[in-house]
């Protein structure tokens, strides 16, 4: 049953292992003839309404807000609609500009987070259209919204979110692909290619998770570390933020995620000999050519004594001379790399917490669902 650990050492270990399934389940029935079809949002968002949307605001708290950041990259690229990501608790206290052409999409595993619920209600009162991306059937936020796109990660018990995050990113990507096609921003051929990438992810993620033993070894060696930094660029940036959040939540280690391009504008001052830094490295095949820029960031921090842990694509040899440890992810399109790169960081936080003898499923001071403001 969902309420037992099924032989795993923790619910979190079990839930990370279920990420490929969560991904697959969230795609199930939503792809027809190689294209995305989202029947369930038709009611609240018929195609003509989607064509009239001129701005999207993604709302969430904690991990859900970071999945929103990834949604922003995908939706803007595929559908050509401007997207903002807002922390739900900041949203309604700053007079956000909303109209019937604004689509406010909330992201919540529980569908009960009070900050997110209040933001959704506020958006509705101000005339915006509301979409809920939610993992819990019939949750309050889902009921308060014009339409729901359910993630199908299954029940998540561990306080720190893992498989729900993966499923949220997939749901946002599905929505971006749907919107892109409805609005004529994405050709059927391009759409099919992207859908095929999504469908290939569960098997690739399985490969990533199989390196769990390596990650455990790394974590054990770092069990007395006091501070870890995470760098990423483009879609690697939200991955860095999520990796840092997981480490704070689970292992009570000071951790910060930074955009790699921001390094020279401040964070590089933090680098001293021995500082542990995870770097999420974009594919060397990527056409934006961000790869050399991130490799040069690695050289800069290495020259100042950082201990570099790279998450890099299989076959990327450029990182080898400068990284102390390398975790590999299989080849995927640029937008899909985060779904592979985040898993080792989740595993790392879990293993480090376990190495410190902490309760992985119930970190101190945190609640699974925060139903007060
Ligand atoms: C709490 C949990 C986090 C979660 C956040 C949002 O802070 O500890 O893991 O990301 O709430 O929860 P939601 O259910 O709205 O996704």
Automatic annotation (TrEMBL):
It catalyses: D-fructose 6-phosphate + L-glutamine = D-glucosamine 6-phosphate + L-glutamate. GO terms for molecular function: glutamine-fructose-6-phosphate transaminase (isomerizing) activity. Its EC number is 2.6.1.16. Keywords: Aminotransferase, Cytoplasm, Glutamine amidotransferase, Repeat, Transferase. Coiled coil: none annotated. The active site is at 368 (for fru-6p isomerization activity). Its main location: cytoplasm. The keyword Repeat applies. Residues 45-185, 218-363 form the SIS domain. Catalyzes the first step in hexosamine metabolism, converting fructose-6P into glucosamine-6P using glutamine as a nitrogen source. Homodimer. This is Glutamine--fructose-6-phosphate aminotransferase [isomerizing]. It comes from Amnibacterium endophyticum. The chain holds residues 245 to 617 of 617 of the full protein.
């Amino acid at each position: 049953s969902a309420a037992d650990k099924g032989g795993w050492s923790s619910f979190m270990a079990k839930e990370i292992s279920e990420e490929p399934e969560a991904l697959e389940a969230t795609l199930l029935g939503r792809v027809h003839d190689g294209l995305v079809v989202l029947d369930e949002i038709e009611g609240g968002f018929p195609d003509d309404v989607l064509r009239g949307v001129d701005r999207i605001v993604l709302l969430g708290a904690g991990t859900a807000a970071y999945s929103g950041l990834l949604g922003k990259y995908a939706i803007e690229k595929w559908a050509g609609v401007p997207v903002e990501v807002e922390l739900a608790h900041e949203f309604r206290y700053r007079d956000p500009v909303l109209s019937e052409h604004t689509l406010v999409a909330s992201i919540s595993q529980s569908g009960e987070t009070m900050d997110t619920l209040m933001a959704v209600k506020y958006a509705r009162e101000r005339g915006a259209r509301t979409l809920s991306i939610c993992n819990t059937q019939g949750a309050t936020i889902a009921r308060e919204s014009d339409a729901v796109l359910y993630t199908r990660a299954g029940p998540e018990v561990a306080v720190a979110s893992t498989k729900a995050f993966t499923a949220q990113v997939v749901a946002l990507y599905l929505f971006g692909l749907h919107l892109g096609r409805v609005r004529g921003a994405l050709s059927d051929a391009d759409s099919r290619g992207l859908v095929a990438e999504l469908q290939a992810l569960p098997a690739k993620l399985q490969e990533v998770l199989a390196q769990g033993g390596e990650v455990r070894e790394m974590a054990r060696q770092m069990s007395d570390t006091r501070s870890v930094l995470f760098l990423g660029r483009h879609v690697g940036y939200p991955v860095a933020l999520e990796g840092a959040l997981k480490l704070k939540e689970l292992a009570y280690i000071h951790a910060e995620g930074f955009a790699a391009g921001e390094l020279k504008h401040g964070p590089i001052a933090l680098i001293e000999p021995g500082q542990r830094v995870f770097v999420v490295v974009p594919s060397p095949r990527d056409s934006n050519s961000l790869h050399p820029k991130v490799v040069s960031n690695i050289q800069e921090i290495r020259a100042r004594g950082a201990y570099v842990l790279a998450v890099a694509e299989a076959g990327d040899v450029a990182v080898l001379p400068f990284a102390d440890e390398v975790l590999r992810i299989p080849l995927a399109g640029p937008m899909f790399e985060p779904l592979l790169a985040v898993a080792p960081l989740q595993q790392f936080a879990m293993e480090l917490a376990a190495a410190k003898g902490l309760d992985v499923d119930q970190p101190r001071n945190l609640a699974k669902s925060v139903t007060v403001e």
